[in-house]
């Protein structure tokens, strides 16, 4: 497995694989890998001959009061895990390598990047779309795999790929969960024991919402059910509960007629957790 801290080194490796007509699959990550990431890697390996995983904690998607410095890092451990998965190359750039000394050009998807989590975290999705564009230009993959847990991010990346004509197939992979239902996340390690015990309420609320939708409940009733369940857990501080058309991410009201995406953003102590579920109307 190659470990490539520079763009030039990675491009050289990818060019050699291209000459061999190998299909390149990319999995972008910020590291501190867990089984959810490894599931993405396996999905990439099923679609490509060579899998490239990037590990880069991207500063441009963190706000001034967010947890950039606290974000967990374990590069050596991550590389060991990726080696066991048969990954061809790991891209491990520094901030200077990724952005240089200028960093004056940004990519934005305003319609999707300014709503929901984008409204709560101004500039976050500009940072995401910019770094993903750079990764796509550096690696030039045929396929890229992203987790569905970050549902808004996945929708934004798909829109960006369509609009900018990237010849890349974007694959969304279902959320991987712990045995108690909590969505796997690198941030989970920062939860206190009390918050870790409380956090599975996110999945429980989503399951309840799915059951209500199957019974024919409207969007307002489903939102009420979710908020009532979260309110019973004092450690859960709700930032947003959004019920959206799964295809357009437009807000839904009244009776459900198409699949809807329910997106949750809830803070436990200093840790913001997100979760999602696409549910069908009854």
SSE arrangement:
Blueprint: E1 2-4, H1 7-19, E2 24-29, H2 35-47, E3 50-55, H3 75-84, E4 89-91, H4 95-99, H5 110-113, H6 117-120, H7 124-139, E5 143-147, H8 151-164, E6 169-173, H9 193-198, H10 201-214, H11 219-231, E7 236-245, E8 260-268, E9 271-279
Parallel strand pairs: 1-4, 2-3, 2-5, 3-4, 5-6
Antiparallel strand pairs: 7-8, 8-9
Subunit structure: Homodimer.
InterPro entries: Cyt_trans-like (IPR004821), Pantoate_ligase (IPR003721), Pantoate_ligase_C (IPR042176), Rossmann-like_a/b/a_fold (IPR014729)
Pfam families: Pantoate_ligase
How does this structure look, described?
This protein is an alpha/beta fold. The chain has two domains: 2-173, Rossmann fold, CATH 3.40.50.620; 186-276, Pantoate--beta-alanine Ligase, Chain: A,domain 2 (2-Layer Sandwich), CATH 3.30.1300. Helices cover 40% and strands 20% of the residues. It is built from eleven helices and nine strands. It has helices at 7-19, 35-47, 75-84, 95-99, 110-113, 117-120, 124-139, 151-164, 193-198, 201-214, 219-231; strands spanning 2-4, 24-29, 50-55, 89-91, 143-147, 169-173, 236-245, 260-268, 271-279. It has a six-stranded parallel sheet with strand order 1-4-3-2-5-6, with helices on both faces. A three-stranded antiparallel sheet has the order 7-8-9. Helix 8 links the parallel strand 5 (143-147) and strand 6 (169-173). The protein is globular and about 55 Å long. Keywords: ATP-binding, Cytoplasm, Ligase, Nucleotide-binding, Pantothenate biosynthesis. InterPro entries: Cyt_trans-like (IPR004821), Pantoate_ligase (IPR003721), Pantoate_ligase_C (IPR042176), Rossmann-like_a/b/a_fold (IPR014729).
């Amino acid at each position: 497995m190659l470990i490539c801290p520079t763009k030039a080194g990675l491009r050289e490796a990818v060019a050699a694989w291209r000459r061999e007509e190998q299909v390149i699959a990319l999995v972008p990550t910020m590291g501190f890998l867990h089984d959810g990431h490894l599931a993405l890697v396996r999905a990439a390996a099923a679609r490509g001959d060579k899998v490239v995983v990037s590990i880069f904690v991207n500063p441009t998607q963190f706000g001034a009061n967010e947890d950039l410095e606290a974000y967990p890092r374990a590069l050596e451990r991550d590389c060991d895990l990726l080696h066991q998965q048969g990954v061809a190359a790991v891209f491990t750039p520094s901030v200077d390598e990724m952005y240089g000394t200028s960093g004056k050009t940004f990519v934005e998807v305003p319609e999707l990047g300014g709503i929901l989590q984008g409204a709560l975290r101004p500039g976050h999705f500009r940072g995401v779309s910019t770094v993903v564009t750079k990764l796509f230009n550096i690696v030039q993959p045929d396929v890229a795999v992203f987790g569905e847990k970050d549902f808004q991010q996945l929708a934004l990346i798909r829109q960006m790929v369509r609009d900018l004509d990237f010849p890349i197939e974007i694959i969304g992979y279902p959320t991987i969960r712990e045995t108690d239902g909590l969505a796997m996340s690198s941030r989970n390690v920062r939860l206190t024991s009390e918050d870790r015990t409380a956090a599975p309420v996110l999945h429980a609320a989503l399951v309840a919402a799915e059951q209500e939708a199957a019974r024919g409940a409207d969007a307002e009733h489903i939102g009420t059910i979710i908020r009532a369940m979260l309110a019973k857990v004092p450690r859960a501080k709700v930032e947003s509960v959004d019920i959206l058309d799964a295809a357009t991410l437009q807000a839904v009201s009244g009776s459900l007629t198409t699949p809807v995406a329910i997106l949750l953003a809830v803070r436990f102590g200093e840790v913001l957790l997100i979760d999602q579920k696409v549910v069908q109307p009854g």
